[in-house]
């Protein structure tokens, strides 16, 4: 009996010893940890890149205008429009920066000299963005952004004639701005900031007031028209240079303005502004209170089923986060397209607002200004682009 118990006991001990893990050497432990570390590094280095590739492909697909607008002229205009936006990280925030509006000397009438706007507000988008990137990467711009992140409410005063800015923390000044009592001059606007970091509008203010950079309305329209021409295989600048009187070696864009679009040039087709007559790439012209044409925009699409016209423009007279390049809409009755753009039954969604709080502007919306006076706004079409648009729509 004792022998049997002893045998069983020894058997159990043997079995237990068989399942007992063998002690690992220091070398084995280090090797296993090294392998795990290597895999960790590989995943750390390459997984974000794979994820980035996937995101890039997704964004590329998303940014393709043909996904929404097909392959016709609407898609081409949309492709041109997307050139007026970039995405940047500024002050730890991801921002969509829109092309600023370039001033047309409307703020320098109280100073002695005209301000030199970058490329006269007629530069190509790529050249303007290159210059803007230099501004956004500058030490001076960093100082401006840091001042907006102090956590304290303040007023930024832009000395536009000197291309400088300063801070004001006086509570009385802050209270006046909040109450709508504007303190400042056209060349010296005041901007109230929360101190909680920069917004897109703050970046816009700096580019406008210190950078002197952007596109004016006709420069914006011209570059979309020129983009259409390039897609259709024609050099629009070369075609129109004789009409515009462009000297040899000069940029045609510098000679295109609202005066040209508002003229009776044989290169322009005067379009009856009934909705049924309108097409994408038609140019909308708006008059000032004295009747002169002062602003231009371009039609991107007309949805005759839903009753929506989408037009694009670059202006400083818009709600604060829309200043610069932006889209606008007109709503109409799809069952009644034999109606003029001046008809009060149409709903123009675009509101007009002063560039800076407290300033005054005429008109409250695009519809009001287009309907102003008996003749109101008008629509023109560039004759040279008619065959191009026809080909693009095939």
Polypeptide structure, described:
There is one protein chain. This protein has 394 residues and is an alpha+beta fold. It has 13 helices and twelve strands. The strands form three sheets. A seven-stranded antiparallel β-sheet has the order 6-12-7-8-9-10-11. The chain has a three-stranded antiparallel β-sheet with strand order 4-3-5, with helices on both faces. α4 packs across α9. The chain is globular and about 55 Å long. The N terminus is likely disordered.
Give a short overview.
The protein has 394 residues and is α+β, with helices and mostly antiparallel strands. It has 13 helices and twelve strands.
Keywords for this structure?
394 residues, alpha+beta, 7-stranded antiparallel sheet, 3-stranded antiparallel sheet, disordered N terminus
Provide the fold topology.
Blueprint: H1 2-19, H2 26-62, H3 66-69, H4 73-81, E1 85-90, E2 93-98, H5 125-136, H6 139-147, E3 154-159, E4 164-168, H7 171-178, E5 190-193, H8 200-209, H9 217-231, H10 236-244, H11 258-261, E6 268-271, E7 283-287, E8 293-303, E9 308-315, E10 324-331, E11 347-348, H12 366-370, E12 378-382, H13 386-392
Antiparallel strand pairs: 1-2, 3-4, 3-5, 6-12, 7-8, 7-12, 8-9, 9-10, 10-11
């Amino acid at each position: 009996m004792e022998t049997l118990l002893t045998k069983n006991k020894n058997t159990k001990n043997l079995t237990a010893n068989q399942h007992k893990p063998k002690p690992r050497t220091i070398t084995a432990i280090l090797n296993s940890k090294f392998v795990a570390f290597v895999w960790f590094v590989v995943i750390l280095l390459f997984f974000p890149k794979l994820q980035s590739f996937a995101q890039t492909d997704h964004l590329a697909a998303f940014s393709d205008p043909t996904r929404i607008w097909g392959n016709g002229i609407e898609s081409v205009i949309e492709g041109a429009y997307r050139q007026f936006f970039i995405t940047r990280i500024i002050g730890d925030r991801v921002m969509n920066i829109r092309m600023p509006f370039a001033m047309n000397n409307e703020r320098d009438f109280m100073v002695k000299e005209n301000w030199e706007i970058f490329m006269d507000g007629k530069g190509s988008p790529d050249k303007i963005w290159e210059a803007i990137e230099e501004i956004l990467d500058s030490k001076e711009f960093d100082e401006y952004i840091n001042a907006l992140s102090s956590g304290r409410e303040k007023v930024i005063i832009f000395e536009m004639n000197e291309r400088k800015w300063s801070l004001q923390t006086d509570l009385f000044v802050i209270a006046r701005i909040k109450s709508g009592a504007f303190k400042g001059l056209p060349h010296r606007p005041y901007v109230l900031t929360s101190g909680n970091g920069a917004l897109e509008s703050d970046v816009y203010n700096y580019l406008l007031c210190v950078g002197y950079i952007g596109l004016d309305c006709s420069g914006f329209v011209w570059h979309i028209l020129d983009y259409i021409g390039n897609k259709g295989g024609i050099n629009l600048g070369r075609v129109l240079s004789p009409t515009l009187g462009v000297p040899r070696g000069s940029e045609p864009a510098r000679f295109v303005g609202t005066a040209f679009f508002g003229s009776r040039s044989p290169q322009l087709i005067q379009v009856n502004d009934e909705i049924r007559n309108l097409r994408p790439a038609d140019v909308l012209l708006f008059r000032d209170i004295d009747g002169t044409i002062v602003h231009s925009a371009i039609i991107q699409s007309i949805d005759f089923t839903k009753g929506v016209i989408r037009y694009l423009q670059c202006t400083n007279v818009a709600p604060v986060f829309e200043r610069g390049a932006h889209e606008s809409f007109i709503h109409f009755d799809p069952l009644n397209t034999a109606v003029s753009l001046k008809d009060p039954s149409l709903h123009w969604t675009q509101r007009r607002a002063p560039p800076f709080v407290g300033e005054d502007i005429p008109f409250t919306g695009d519809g009001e200004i287009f309907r102003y006076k008996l003749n109101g706004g008008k629509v023109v079409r560039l004759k040279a682009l008619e065959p191009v648009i026809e080909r693009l729509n095939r």
